[in-house]
Amino acid sequence: MTKKRSDCPISSSLEIWGDKWSLLIIRDLMLNKECTYGEFLKADEKIATNILASRLQHLLDNGVIDKKNHPDSKLKILYHLTEKGIDLIPIIVEINIWGDKYLPTPPDKKKMIENMKKNKEKFIETAKIYLSER
Prior knowledge:
Elements: H1 9-17, H2 20-32, E1 34-35, H3 37-41, H4 49-61, E2 65-69, E3 77-81, H5 83-86, H6 89-102, H7 107-118, H8 120-132
Antiparallel strand pairs: 1-3, 2-3
């Protein structure tokens, strides 16, 4: 665990997952269930390799994600959300809904966000079940 700035739950939580890159890693794992290091690098946001390595390690150290060997390659590792990470899904859903309300949403993301808004609880529960199956 990292040293906390305060005992405020918001501040303490943000210490773990509150930076831009960590949230994008969590987003990718929420949408794809598992990702390799290389798959994270291919995301539209173009994360630098040193930042990716640092954020993955930080999320691993804090129990938000875990890793396992890739079934097809001994050189690759698959990252996935832990239960602690899966419990962030409602936050990611709310960020998506907020972003759709105040920012332009690309057409390829619009349908997913509309599904979130239509029945938020069902979307979250379905995502949790999907991500819990390993």
